[in-house]
């Protein structure tokens, strides 16, 4: 009986470690994440596993993107994976602390609108972390964007 319990525990641990390894090492299809649909109005959209915020900018495009890039890079476990300020679009990957689940956030300026689109890669629910991150980044931007 104890041998069976030990085998079950070892199997469960092996599955958990395997899942954690897959989540952390699975390749990222940058082309899938580094894209945005055109937007025409400011506002927020809650999506399954994601969140999109669109704000009118109150400063030059480059100033807004440069400041937002600095905010994103200062966010723990966040790194750029595609794009640049010069291209007016950058995509970042933010990983959760323990499991390392990747979320992808694309920022871009389309005309006088700033678009921040955050979404999860694995699963169905992000438990609100993408919305919280996007709203925090917008708070840190301060007066460089207008409220929706």
In short:
This protein has a single domain (30-144), classed as Kinase associated domain 1, KA1 (TATA-Binding Protein). It is 37% helix and 29% strand.
Keywords:
single chain; 148 residues; alpha+beta; TATA-Binding Protein; DUF1499 domain-containing protein; elongated; 6 strands
Task: Please tell me about this protein's structure.
- By secondary structure, this protein is an alpha+beta fold.
- It has one domain: Kinase associated domain 1, KA1 (TATA-Binding Protein, 2-Layer Sandwich).
- The protein is built from 4 helices and 6 strands; from the N terminus they run H-H-E-E-H-E-E-E-E-H.
- The chain has a 6-stranded antiparallel sheet with strand order 1-2-6-5-4-3, covered by helices on one side.
- Strand 3 and strand 4 form a beta hairpin.
- The radius of gyration is 18 Å and the shape is elongated.
- The mean pLDDT is 92.
- This is DUF1499 domain-containing protein.
- It holds the Pfam family DUF1499.
- InterPro entries: DUF1499.
Per-chain topology:
Layout: H1 2-25, H2 30-33, E1 43-47, E2 50-56, H3 61-74, E3 78-84, E4 89-95, E5 102-110, E6 113-120, H4 129-141
Helix pairs in contact: 3-4
